[in-house]
């Protein structure tokens, strides 16, 4: 009897350890946390959880719900280990036992089906995931009610799967209803609700429903202003998202005002050479450049003032991003930056911002030259210099851990502009420059490499 009690206590200990999970907003799911000195390796943990299943069977019976919990726990471990082929039978067996014990309409079955749906979603088995979520939603609706937070959770996940399956209208309706339930339950300002609103805005942006995206982002910013104020980077990032949509909608004045406010707030919270400040300056410069283009036909002096402002912002953005890359390179981290996730992310972002800023400044110089109507077809030497720097900058980091598909896409954009400039015949024709033939070959190579990446983004 004492031995059996010890075994059951051991089983409970393993179970409690496995069930300790924390929510990770960026991942859209739970991260399993294994505690205790016994679990220094996942392989060791697997042995204990397999033993826990056997102990549960001996203590409670072969088809007892405790055994289902043990199967589910082992399945969760396999999911973390990404051994999906082992995890699926565990999930299915847990559901079978729960259905035998409580019936097919029990809430515990609904929760298990939700977990299985999440498991399939991670593997992009969308039809299987959709089926699990639909069954779980019906059970939760009947048992918990159609206004329950858990019902809304499954509703949201089903909506995300339907969106991935291309059923956008049904997806949008489900996600909006899940948000409404949270709001009616007093959770409208929760992280959970904010994350769902952001996903909804992202859906609208991808569908080019810019007005709907703008309305959702205004709502997000309003919530963040009330809950966190402008001394929070979360609020600033929310404002950034709204400004981008306003820019896409052609609301340049409001977009610039919002971005200027973001820049002031960031300068009060971050070091002056932080990459977020460089990115903020780049975004303002792009808005100012577009405004300048609109002013050319009506007020040339204001257009020139706007271009001067844009040039100053872009030069500062280039200075900051170059400084970050120089610091990282000086530490000798170019090849091994993946060992430091924070620095690696900053470095990749700095390279992207630098390429974008050089490209934008090159485009700005072309615009400035074209505004000088007294000169006929002036040489665009400064623009050529800037765009050539894009080429040389990328070459420094080619093959490093900075050389991601996102970086390649920005590099390709720079090369296309440089190629167009050289083709126009308005360049310096100096020796030592990259040739037009080499540019075209490089662009063709990049287009092939980037094709799957762009399809995925669209």
Automatic annotation (TrEMBL):
The keyword Membrane applies. The chain crosses the membrane at residues 20-39. It comes from the Eukaryota. TPR repeats lie at residues 68-101. Residues 429-456 form a coiled coil. It holds the Pfam family TPR_12. Keywords: Coiled coil, Membrane, TPR repeat, Transmembrane, Transmembrane helix. This is Protein KINESIN LIGHT CHAIN-RELATED 1 isoform X2.
């Amino acid at each position: 009897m004492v031995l059996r009690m010890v075994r059951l206590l051991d089983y409970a200990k393993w179970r409690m350890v496995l069930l300790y999970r924390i929510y990770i907003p960026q991942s859209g799911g739970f991260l399993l946390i294994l505690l205790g000195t016994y679990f220094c390796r996942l392989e060791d943990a697997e042995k204990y959880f397999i033993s826990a299943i056997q102990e549960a069977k001996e203590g409670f019976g072969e088809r007892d719900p405790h055994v289902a919990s043990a199967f589910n726990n082992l399945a969760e471990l396999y999911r973390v280990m990404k051994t999906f082929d082992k995890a699926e039978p565990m999930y299915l067996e847990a559901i079978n036992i729960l259905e035998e014990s409580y019936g097919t309409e029990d809430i515990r079955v609904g929760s298990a089906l939700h977990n299985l749906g999440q498991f399939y979603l991670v593997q992009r088995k969308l039809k299987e995931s959709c089926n699990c979520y639909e069954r779980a939603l019906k059970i939760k609706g009947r048992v918990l009610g159609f206004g329950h937070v858990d019902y809304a959770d499954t509703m949201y996940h089903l909506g995300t799967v339907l969106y991935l399956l291309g059923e956008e209208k049904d997806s949008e309706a489900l996600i909006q209803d899940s948000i409404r339930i949270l709001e009616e339950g007093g959770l409208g300002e929760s992280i959970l609700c904010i994350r769902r609103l952001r996903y909804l805005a992202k859906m609208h942006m991808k569908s080019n429903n810019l007005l709907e995206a703008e309305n959702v982002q205004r709502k997000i910013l309003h919530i963040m202003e009330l809950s966190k104020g402008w001394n929070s980077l979360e609020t600033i990032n929310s404002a950034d998202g709204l400004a981008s949509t306003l820019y896409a909608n052609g609301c340049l004045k409001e977009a610039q005002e919002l971005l200027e406010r973001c820049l002031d707030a960031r300068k009060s919270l971050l070091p002056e050479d932080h990459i977020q400040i460089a990115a903020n300056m780049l975004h303002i410069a792009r808005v100012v450049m577009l405004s300048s283009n609109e002013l050319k036909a009506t007020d040339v002096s204001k257009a020139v003032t706007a271009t001067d402002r844009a040039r100053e912002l872009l030069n500062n953005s280039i200075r900051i991003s170059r400084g970050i890359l120089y610091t990282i390179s000086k530490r000798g981290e170019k090849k091994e930056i993946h060992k430091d996730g924070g620095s690696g992310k900053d470095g990749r972002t700095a390279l992207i911002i630098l390429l974008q800023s050089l490209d934008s400044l090159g485009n700005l110089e072309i615009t400035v030259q074209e505004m000088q109507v007294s000169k006929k077809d002036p040489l665009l030497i400064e623009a050529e210099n800037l765009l050539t720097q894009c080429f040389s900058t990328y070459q420094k980091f080619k093959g490093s851990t900075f050389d991601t598909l996102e970086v390649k896409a920005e590099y390709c954009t720079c090369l296309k502009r440089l190629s167009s400039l050289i083709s126009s015949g308005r360049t310096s024709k100096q020796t030592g420059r990259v040739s037009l033939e080499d540019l075209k070959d490089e662009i063709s190579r990049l287009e092939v490499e980037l094709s799957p990446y762009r399809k995925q983004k669209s």
